[in-house]
Amino acid sequence: MSTTTISPLRQRMIEDMTARKFGPASQRSHIESCERFAAYLKRSPARVVVSPLDELRKLPKSPAQNPGKRPGRRGQGEPSA
What are the Cα distances from residue 24, in Å, to 11, 27, 49, 79, 81? Predict the structure, then answer.
């Protein structure tokens, strides 16, 4: 009988998916997708996870910190001549 250790991150993912009533095939597919994504990034899945707050901190705080870019004007095209 072999004993395989499961990382805390994988265990948490499995528990979360079970709580959300994901079926075994869906769980397996999701974990395999995460493994492929981590392999693509060449990092451990635990190091791939980024906090949304970390991402927000990377954004410029004002237009002055992002020269050359104008704020978007949604729904407004070029003025008619």
Answer: 14, 5, 23, 55, 61
* Cβ atoms 9, 46 nearer than 8 A: yes
Question: What residues contact 15, with CB distance under 8 A and at least 6 apart?
Answer: none
Report how far residue 81's alpha carbon sits from residue 70's, in angstroms, rounded to the nearest whole number.
Answer: 22
Residues lower than pLDDT 70 in the chain? 1-2, 48-81
Within 10 Å of residue 70's Cβ, how many Cβ atoms?
A: 7
From CA 41, how far away is CA 21, in angstroms rounded?
Answer: 29
What's the pTM?
0.50
In the chain, what is the straight-line distance between the N-terminal and C-terminal CA atoms, in Å? 79
